TrEMBL record:
<dbReference type="InterPro" id="IPR043133">
    <property type="entry name" value="GTP-CH-I_C/QueF"/>
</dbReference>
<dbReference type="GO" id="GO:0005737">
    <property type="term" value="C:cytoplasm"/>
</dbReference>
<protein>
    <recommendedName>
        <fullName>7,8-dihydroneopterin aldolase</fullName>
        <ecNumber>4.1.2.25</ecNumber>
    </recommendedName>
</protein>
<dbReference type="InterPro" id="IPR006157">
    <property type="entry name" value="FolB_dom"/>
</dbReference>
<comment type="pathway">
    <text>Cofactor biosynthesis; tetrahydrofolate biosynthesis; 2-amino-4-hydroxy-6-hydroxymethyl-7,8-dihydropteridine diphosphate from 7,8-dihydroneopterin triphosphate: step 3/4.</text>
</comment>
<dbReference type="GO" id="GO:0004150">
    <property type="term" value="F:dihydroneopterin aldolase activity"/>
</dbReference>
<comment type="function">
    <text>Catalyzes the conversion of 7,8-dihydroneopterin to 6-hydroxymethyl-7,8-dihydropterin. Can also catalyze the epimerization of carbon 2' of dihydroneopterin to dihydromonapterin.</text>
</comment>
<comment type="subunit">
    <text>Homooctamer. Four molecules assemble into a ring, and two rings come together to give a cylinder with a hole of at least 13 a diameter.</text>
</comment>
<feature type="domain" description="Dihydroneopterin aldolase/epimerase">
    <location>
        <begin position="5"/>
        <end position="118"/>
    </location>
</feature>
<dbReference type="GO" id="GO:0046656">
    <property type="term" value="P:folic acid biosynthetic process"/>
</dbReference>
<dbReference type="Pfam" id="PF02152">
    <property type="entry name" value="FolB"/>
</dbReference>
<comment type="similarity">
    <text>Belongs to the DHNA family.</text>
</comment>
<dbReference type="GO" id="GO:0046654">
    <property type="term" value="P:tetrahydrofolate biosynthetic process"/>
</dbReference>
<keyword id="KW-0289">Folate biosynthesis</keyword>
<dbReference type="InterPro" id="IPR006156">
    <property type="entry name" value="Dihydroneopterin_aldolase"/>
</dbReference>
<keyword id="KW-0456">Lyase</keyword>
Length: 121
């Protein structure tokens, strides 16, 4: 199966990070989500009930990313993947990518971050 729903380039301002500067000043986090899902039923029916409402998924991500600060991007990604997989039975696999574009690290780069893939069991 190659069907996917994706949300790319979601931008949120948050105060996550290990360093105190990250907690005090905050920064923009970029989130990309990819959900492996069979979209054939939705393709035939034209009903949102036969797919995953990506507007709802956006709100889930927003609440986590703009919510209580945590130390690690890995923790944020796990929370997002667990929430999606537990709420949407149609999703087979969820991939979460979180990028910090401007972490307090000297150097030149486009961003640093993490990516996880979690199967829905």
């Amino acid at each position: 199966m190659q069907d996917k729903i994706f949300l790319n380039g979601l931008r949120f301002y948050g105060y996550h990070g290990v360093l105190s500067a990250e907690n005090d000043i905050g920064q923009i986090f970029v989130v990309d989500v990819e959900m492996l899902i069979d979209l054939s039923a939705a393709g035939m029916s034209d009903k949102v009930e036969d797919t995953v409402n990506y507007g709802e998924v956006f709100e889930v991500i927003k609440n986590i990313m703009e919510g209580q600060p945590v130390n690690l991007l890995e923790h944020l990604a796990e929370r997002i993947a667990k929430r999606i997989n537990s709420h949407y039975n149609r999703v087979l696999t969820t991939k979460i990518r979180i990028t910090k574009e401007n972490p307090p690290i000297p150097g030149h780069y486009q961003g640093v971050g993490i990516e996880i893939v979690r199967e829905n069991k």
